[in-house]
Amino acid sequence: MLVRLIYASTATENVGMTEFKVILQQSQVNNNRRDLTGVLAFNSKIFLQGLEGSREEINELYTRLLRDTRHHTVAVLEYAEIEEREWGQWSMGFAAPSADNRALFLKYSGQSVFNPYAMRGGAVKKLLGELAGKSITMTVPTSLAAPVPSAITPMAPRTPLPPLATTPMAPRTPLPPLRSFGAAPAVAPARPSVAASPVPPTTAAAPTAPGLLDRLLNR
Q1: What is the crossing angle of helices 121-133 and 99-108, to 10°?
Q2: What value, to the nearest 5°, has the Cα angle with vertex 113 and ends 107 and 118?
Q3: Does domain 2-133 have CATH number 3.30.70.100?
Q4: Is the Cα torsion angle 135, 123, 15, 63 positive or negative in sign?
Q5: pLDDT per residue over 133-144, tens digit each?
């Protein structure tokens, strides 16, 4: 069975905005685990919370709330069985004394200040409905709107690597000049070929008749 509980309470003196932020975070986690939905408004002094869920879970939560030392003067403003949830997701708001919020407070009560103790249960339910539906009135204070630090640890910037130690190269030893073995021997020019003079054929002396010269000389 679904029920709705709306209650008001007054924060103790040591509860400030830092503690309120802790309460908001705890409410989100715990109520989500128990399938509870609702609205929580705060004006630095008075809490106004509406809760929806199973009767067992709502009753158990209310018992714990009575023992919470962070607030006092807990007053039930409405407790009723419901057919369906009006707040489908967990909402939270800061009931700051802005012009828009003053208009809402005057709309549902006889005062322009946030004082749910002086309001009827039906009027408080409508006030919470409008606070949950208007982003301007649900603005979380700056101190609460700070982003949650990421669980991922950012990597440290890389340390630049030292420059490589370069050893200058020793100058190359010049190669010795090529060893000269002298000029290549000159090739003697080829002698011109001399045409061989033909050897005159040997003329054989004609045989002379024996005694012919002698006869000629002796004439």
Answers
A1: 150
A2: 75
A3: yes
A4: negative
A5: 664 344 444 344
What radius of gyration do the chain's Cα atoms show?
62
Q: How far is CA 132 from CA 46, 92, 116, 135, in A?
A: 17, 7, 16, 7
The conformation of residue 79, written as its DSSP 8-state character, comes to E
DSSP letter (8 states) at residue 86: S
Nearest Cα residue to 139 out of 106, 108, 99:
99
Q: Cβ distance 113 to 105 under 8 Å?
A: yes
Structure tokens at 91: 């909402």
- Relative to beta strand 46-54, strand 37-42 is antiparallel
List the 2-11 sheet strands across, edge first. Answer: 71-81, 2-11, 46-54, 37-42, 91-94
Instruction: Render pLDDT for 164-191 as a digit per residue (tens, 0 to 9).
Output: 555 566 666 666 665 655 555 555 555 5
> Scanning the structure block, which residue is given the tokens 């009027």?
123
Q: Pick the closest to residue 74 from 4, 11, 27 (CA basis).
A: 11
Question: Which amino acid is it at 144?
Answer: L
Stated pTM of the model:
0.58
Show the beta-strand stretches assigned E in the chain: 2-11, 37-42, 46-54, 71-81, 91-94
* Bridge pairing between strands 46-54 and 91-94: unpaired
